[in-house]
């Protein structure tokens, strides 16, 4: 009788070990995925900052062209 109990306990222990092993593998996969996503976020932030700078530069260029156009239109009206 006690041998059967021992076998059941051994089976449960082995199941627990298997479950722990699977969970550890899943944790490692999630850590790798988290690192990858963190890198993607950093890259996206860098791209965002670059686009914000480019947008500001283009707005400034647009403003300069608008002023030049206004100046030319003003000279045309004087003529």
UniProtKB/TrEMBL annotation:
The gene is zapB. It comes from Rouxiella badensis. Homodimer. The ends of the coiled-coil dimer bind to each other, forming polymers. Interacts with FtsZ. The keyword NADP does not apply. It comes from the Bacteria. Keywords: Cell cycle, Cell division, Coiled coil, Cytoplasm, Septation. Belongs to the ZapB family. It is found in: Cytoplasm. This is Cell division protein ZapB. Non-essential, abundant cell division factor that is required for proper Z-ring formation. It is recruited early to the divisome by direct interaction with FtsZ, stimulating Z-ring assembly and thereby promoting cell division earlier in the cell cycle. Its recruitment to the Z-ring requires functional FtsA or ZipA. GO terms for biological process: division septum assembly; FtsZ-dependent cytokinesis. Residues 6-61 form a coiled coil. One of its GO terms (cellular component) is cytoplasm. Gene3D superfamilies: 1.20.5.340.
